[in-house]
Amino acid sequence: MAGYGRLLRVNLSTGDMRQEDIPDQVKKDFIGGRGFGAKYLYDEVAPGVDPLSPDNKLLFVVGPLAGTNAQSVSRWMVVTKSPATGTFARAVAGADFGAWMRFAGLNMIIIEGKAEKPVYLYIEDGQSQIRDAAELWGKDTQETQEWLQQAHGRRVRSACIGPAGEKLVRFASITSRRRTASRGGVGTVMGSKNLKAIAINAGGRVELHDPDAFKEVVQQQIEAIKANPGFSVFRDSGTIAGIWLTNASGIYPVRNFQEGQLDNYEGMVGEYASLTKRNEGCYSCMIQCGKVRSVPSGPYKGSSDGPEYESAWAFSGTIDSSNVESTIAADRLCDELGMDTISAGNAIGFAFELFEKGILTQRDTDGLDLSWGNHGALVELIGKIGRREGLGDLLAEGVQRAAERIGKGAEDYAMHVKGLEIPAYEPRGAKAHGMSFATSNMGPQHNYGYAGQELMSIPIPREVDRFADEGKGDIVKFNQDFCATFEVGIVCVFPFLMYMVTSQSLGQMLLAVTGIPEHGDPDYLGKVGERIYNLERAFNVREGFSRKDDTLPKRMLTEPLKKGPSEGQIVRQDVILDEYYDVRGWTRNGIPTPERLRALGLEDVTKDMEPFVK
Ligand code: SF4
Known about the structure:
- By secondary structure, the chain is α+β, with helices and mostly antiparallel strands.
- The longest helix is centred in the C-terminal third of the chain and has 21 residues, at 522-542.
- The chain is globular and about 60 Å long.
- The structure holds iron/sulfur cluster (SF4).
């Protein structure tokens, strides 16, 4: 079948490697990308598996469009059971590793077991080898990629972990160039398997079902992107303009989610612009939203491919600092160590608040002064977390586990859902976005149900009042399923959120590549998105997750937000939860019903849900 490569299965315990065909029915029903990830994780990782044991699996997936010249569709994704949450997790990344997987004839790589000693997987000309990584262990993500290119040639592209993944920092990431699959501890699982990197040397091409139709659709896609007002914004500013947007709405979390607006935010976007040297981007993407920035002198001298909006927040709002140069240094260090910037910044904000409240003192912080605004201490703490030194060793466990160990009421200041740290949006000022965090299958993730209606006033499927609690259940569902639909491609979040790629154009591209008639139907694609979302939910239900876990931190339910245009807001969570479960066709305890599962073609899953449906 055109548009698809094979599955490479690698068992690091036994050294067995084999390629398998992906069944045609799976291609039709799940299309690719996140769909394949959800399907194989559900089928192959049994309930109760310890995420850091050899029984967990690590899936690298791409969609049918990867490696083609369609725009912004060559993203790659890592799917696993998260060591942070114990739930389904997916982390998406860019650069060109996804295209290289397709050039190697692969749509999926499944890593099983655990190597006895550090290794890397090397793939060339359809052959795979497990190689010794003793020389690579301890190197940072940039040194590792450089070493692999020196060893195997400049055509090699790799995805690797840094020291944080080796040391099982619970929010370690996987990096290709400076683009990262960050959230949920996917790099931690890779480290637990003693797998330092996957390197691919390939120069193949992707077979298309209908090359002429595809050429035409891609030309239309390029014209649509050029005509979209968001194109120049993303190309010129990247995601950093979000600082202005969220502060102006009072949803930029400050002081560990106590306040909704940062002092002096107005100048930050311009300061980032003045330090920008050039654009960077992913394979076959005309937007090139990445920005390489450079600090010319001083304690933070150096350059970074970033930070993106989320990372800029993680190293500023969390600790109430508007210092731009320190965020660039912090971003670079996090990327080199191989850590999720959001979780790292959130954990540091948590430590700063514990310091403010007297729960941590300088005796606990290795002498660091964690007073609000101290960006030097933040940068130092990042290094300590990545190396698991002193207080950093505690924070490397994430805020939920760190709070449990600290005690003294520290859990009241741990801003997480299901054990994953909350990103750069204050739920009290954007209720559908916040409840997407609360109900998400992987814990709070900004691009896993992004409420463009609330955050960017996009009136699709309708306008909403961002402060309203009532009438949000259907919006939360719409955004979550919408994201799952596009992540079969895998389409980058920015073009699909800005409607540069629509369900119609995605369908036209998929049809021309795979030739499966259903893939050209936008309604079918919407159903696939919902199918994926329900299957991920069922994975979590099997693990014991239900309504009790779909909750924001107590602070957001009881403490009115301070400062800025969203001041005074709280989230009336139960109102939205009831509506949300009803519109999903789940029980009021958050369990997918047999009727809904059957309607989505998930008949096999109904028996697994029976013990949980009351
Ligand atoms: S829009 Fe940015 S992140 Fe998305 S594919 Fe293009 S360069 Fe990569």
